[in-house]
Amino acid sequence: KRYNLFLRRRLMFKKCLQSKDSIFFRDGVRQIDFVLSYVDDIKKEGDIKVERRREFEINLRKTGLELETEDKRDSEDGKTYFVKIHAPWEVLITYAEVLGMKMPIRESDIPPPDANPFSCVLGPLKLKKAVKHPHPEYFTAQFTRHRQELFLIEDESTFFPTSARNRIVYYILSRCPFGTEEGKKRFGIERLLNSKTYSSAFPLHDGQYWKPSEPPSPVNERYILHKNWARFSYFYKEQPLNLIRRYYGEKIGIYFVFLGFYTEMLSYAAVVGLACFIYGLLSMEGDSSSREICDPEIGGQILMCPLCDQLCDYWRLNTTCLASKFSHLFDNESTVFFAIFMGIWVTLFLEFWKQRQAKLEYEWDMVDFEEEQQQLQLRPEFEAMCKHRKLNAVTKEMEPHMPLCSRIPWYLLSGATVALWMSLVIACMVAVIVYRLSVYATFATVMESEATLEPVRSILTPQLTTSLTGSCLNFIVILILNFFYEKISAWITKMEIPRTYQEYESSLTLKMFLFQFVNYYSSIFYVAFFKGKIVGYPGKYTYMFNIWRSEECDPAGCLIELTTQLTIIMFGKQIFGNVKEAIYPLALNWWRRRKTRTNSEKLYSRWEQDHDLESFGNLGLFYEYLETVIQFGFVTLFVASFPLAPLLALLNNIIEIRVDAWKLTTQYRRPVASKAHSIGVWQDILYGMAVLSVATNAFIVAFTSDIIPRLVYFYAYSTNATDPLKGYINNSLSVFLIADFTNRTAPAEKRGILTCRYRDYRYPPEHESKYSPNMQFWHVLAAKMTFIIVMEHVVFLVKFLLAWMIPDVPKDVVERIKREKLMTVKILHDFELNKLKENLRLNSDLFAKEVMIQENKVQLAKSTM
Question: In this protein, which residues make up the domain named Anoctamin transmembrane (predicted)?
Answer without folding.
Answer: 244-820
